[in-house]
Specification:
Elements: E1 7-13, E2 22-28, E3 34-39, H1 41-51, H2 57-69, E4 78-81, H3 87-97, H4 102-105, E5 108-111, H5 112-119, H6 129-138, H7 143-146, H8 159-171
Parallel strand pairs: 1-4, 4-5
Antiparallel strand pairs: 1-2, 2-3
C-alpha cells in the first residue's frame, strides 16, 4: 500500500521553545524534492511576546507546515508529520488553514508513529530530519554562502504572515 504512494515527511530542527533558530523542512521520499523555512530566534521571541505563541506551539507548527506545502499539494499523497508538537492539534489547525482547498482533504495526514505502525519498522526516522537541519544552519546566511552544498528551496515566512494566519485560526 505504501510503496505506490508518494510520501512527504515534515520535520523540525530545534524545538520552538529553544533559544535558537528553528528549521522546518519537507522531503519527498525516493526523490530529491525538498523545501524548507527558518524561524529565527529573534522572530520566535517576537511572536512569543506579541501573540503569546508559547501557549500553543502546535498552531505555529501548523502555520509553518501550511506555508511549506500549500504550493506543493500535487507532489505527494501522504503527509507524515513528525510529532515535535501535539499531532492532533497540528492536524486540526492544518485542516482549518486549508478549509477552502479540497485537494488537501484528498491527502492522508499521519504522524510518524502511525507510519512506523503501518510499515512495521519501529526504528523508522523522518526523511526530513537532516534537511531541516541544513535549512536551520544555512538559510539565514548570505546567498553566496548559502548555495554551497545542497541547494535550498527556501520558503519565506515573515512576522506579518504568521500573525495574520494566527488570527484566522483564532476566528475559526
Amino acid at each position: 500500500m505504501l510503496d505506490e504512494k508518494r510520501i512527504m515527511h515534515v520535520d523540525t530542527s530545534r524545538q520552538f521553545y529553544e533559544r535558537a533558530d528553528t528549521g522546518i523542512a519537507f522531503k519527498i521520499v525516493k526523490s530529491r524534492e525538498h523545501g524548507g523555512l527558518v524561524l529565527s530566534n529573534k522572530l520566535k521571541r517576537e511572536l512569543d511576546k506579541n501573540i503569546k505563541s508559547y501557549e500553543n506551539y502546535s498552531k505555529l507548527y501548523a502555520i509553518c507546515i501550511y506555508n511549506l506545502i500549500k504550493d506543493n499539494l500535487k507532489i505527494f499523497d501522504i503527509l507524515v508529520i513528525c510529532e515535535d508538537e501535539n499531532f492532533n492539534k497540528t492536524k486540526q489547525y492544518l485542516g482549518a488553514l486549508f478549509r477552502n482547498n479540497s485537494e488537501y482533504f484528498n491527502k492522508q495526514v499521519i504522524s510518524i508513529r502511525e507510519l512506523r505502525e503501518l510499515s512495521g519498522n519501529m526504528k523508522l526516522r523522518s526523511y526530513a530530519d537532516s534537511i531541516a537541519n541544513v535549512y536551520r544552519r544555512k538559510a539565514l546566511k548570505p546567498l553566496y554562502r548559502r548555495q554551497r552544498g545542497i541547494p535550498l528551496n527556501l520558503v519565506t515566512l515573515g512576522y506579518k504572515t504568521i500573525v495574520e494566519q494566527w488570527g484566522l485560526l483564532d476566528k475559526s
